[in-house]
Specification:
By secondary structure, the protein is of the alpha/beta class. About 35% of the residues lie in helices and about 20% in strands. The chain has helices at about 15-35, 50-65, 70-80, 90-100, 115-125, 145-160, 175-185, 215-220, 220-240, 250-260, 395-405, 410-425, 445-450, and strands spanning about 10, 40-45, 80-85, 105-110, 135-140, 165, 200-205, 270-275, 295-300, 310-315, 325-330, 350-355, 360-370, 375-385, 435. The strands form two sheets. The chain has a nine-stranded mixed beta sheet. Helix 6 links the parallel strand 5 and strand 6 (about 165). Helix 1 (about 15-35) crosses helix 3 (about 70-80) and helix 10 packs parallel to helix 12. The longest helix has 19 residues, at about 220-240. The chain is globular and about 80 Å long. The chain starts with 7 loop residues before the first strand and ends in a 16-residue tail after the last helix.
């Protein structure tokens, strides 16, 4: 099973928003590359005709960039069929089993709300549709440590761990994968990649838009759960992990899990929560909501390599810009030979990983200006890496899951260890502070990082901005 390719793809929630925005465009991309060759069976409650589902899929692809290969679209639609039914009804799974026909190694993708995961997984087990199958589970995997453990237990009752693929599309992004490659493919980093030379690390994922009509979802999640505990914690793990002994996804997972296990659990003083002005007027949002649309936190990793190095993480909606990046700031030289390179004159040397809107890596170093005086300024050596033909994150992750490659997915122990870090502040936390749209969040976010040169915000003319 480990090396066998899935011979069918089942998408629970095929009529939903996630399928429309992400899954159909990914399937179309796979069809264009010639990698989609198995039946695709959609399952959902609405009583839709196959013609309506095909129209929905076509509309999705047109909105995602247009149909530029009619043959590929026709091929995708020829593979796409539909089962309508209630996930709690055994008849739905009986109909699915009939639709699968001779397929014996299906991949079941749960593109559904987390509250339905257990119902569908148990239904698959009862209908004997889990043997030799894989299950792909969309984030968030749980709401806290207790619910994550419960979900893991339910999934493990039906599927072995190596057949459970917890999907986080962030890990499928080329820029995220490049962090792992850049760290371990270049020898110059390792001697300085530790507490002796790194002063701090900051990670930002900022969006200049709001919840876009998804207020009811955001009321159940919030920024800490929706972005930081999964997306940004995964980035931290890639930056902080020890070198794996070999290039094997199991070895990588072992080292990532150790990072989460070494993270110090958050407390009240480590966290600043914010809510953009007008959030409570969004559809589906409670009038007295305290759900955060912005979150900034200070984190420590109690390991030999990272002891004492602060990690600053922030994310939010309706901020001044849409961008995401990592800034690894180095400590200043031990002796100030030149007055203009003293710490108070600005940020020390740093390494910058730009994740979006464009992928790039930059190294900042001081360079002497022309003339007799020993003065200069800090400049970036900037490398931009963009490929118009690169795989979409969901295309890459779906393909990997269907071939049994778990490298870009999250393992059970890592999920639970990450929840253990944020669990102390999920219920007992400071109230969300209101912030203006188009700002960089509440002022408290600046205070949490003030001793470490503050947040790095984009400035015009800086490489890649």
């Amino acid at each position: 099973m480990a090396n066998s390719r899935s011979d069918a793809l089942v998408i629970f929630g095929v009529t939903g928003d996630l399928a429309h925005k992400m899954i159909f465009p990914a399937l179309y991309a796979m069809a264009k590359r010639g990698t989609l060759k198995v039946p695709v069976i959609g399952v959902a409650l609405p009583d839709w005709s196959i013609e309506r589902l095909h129209k929905r899929a076509t509309d999705s692809i047109e909105h995602a960039g247009g149909v530029d290969n009619r043959k590929a679209l026709k091929h995708l639609l020829s593979l796409l069929t539909y089962v309508s039914g209630d996930y709690a009804d055994p008849a739905t799974f009986a109909a699915l089993k009939k639709k699968l026909g001779k397929a014996r190694r299906p991949a079941h993708y749960l593109a559904i709300p987390p509250s339905l995961f257990g119902i569908v997984i148990r239904g698959l087990g009862a209908a004997k549709l889990a043997e030799h199958a894989r299950v792909i589970v969309e984030k968030p995997f749980g709401r806290d440590l207790a619910s994550a453990r419960e979900l893991n237990e339910i999934a493990r009752q039906v599927f072995p761990e190596d057949s459970i693929f917890r999907i986080d599309h962030f890990l499928g992004k080329e820029a995220i994968m490049n962090i792992l490659y850049f760290r371990f493919a270049n020898s110059f980093l390792e001697p300085i990649w530790n507490r002796n030379y790194i002063a701090s690390v900051q990670i930002t994922l900022a969006e200049d838009f709001g919840v876009k009509g998804r207020g009811d979802f955001y009321e159940t999640a919030g920024c800490l759960r929706d972005v930081i505990q999964n997306h940004l914690f995964q980035v931290i793990a890639l930056l902080a992990m020890e070198p794996p002994p070999l290039r094997d996804f199991g070895a990588v997972h072992n080292e990532k899990a150790k990072v989460f296990q070494a993270m110090r659990p958050l407390n009240h003083d480590d966290l600043v929560r914010g809510q953009y002005d007008g959030y409570r007027k969004e559809p589906g949002v409670a009038k007295n909501s305290d759900v955060e649309t912005f979150c900034a936190l200070r984190l420590f990793i109690d390991s030999w390599r990272w002891q004492g190095v602060p990690w600053f993480i922030r994310s939010g909606k309706y901020l001044a810009e849409t961008f995401s990046e990592v800034l690894v700031e180095l400590k200043p030289p031990p002796q100030e030979l030149f007055a203009d390179s003293a710490p108070e004159t600005g940020r020390a040397n740093y390494l910058r990983f730009r994740l979006s809107p464009n992928a790039a890596i930059a190294l900042a170093a001081r360079v002497k200006s022309a003339g007799k005086d020993f003065v200069g300024d800090q400049r970036e050596l900037f490398l931009s890496e963009e490929s118009p033909d690169e795989e979409l994150p969901y295309e890459r992750l779906l393909s990997d899951a269907m071939t049994g490659d778990g490298a870009l997915f999250t393992r059970e122990d890592a999920v639970e260890a990450a929840w253990a870090v944020v669990d102390p502040v999920l219920k007992k936390h400071p109230r969300a502070r209101t912030y203006k749209r188009g700002s960089w969040g509440p002022k408290g976010a600046d205070a949490i990082i003030a001793p470490d040169n503050g947040w790095q915000n984009p400035t015009p003319g800086q490489g890649g901005f």
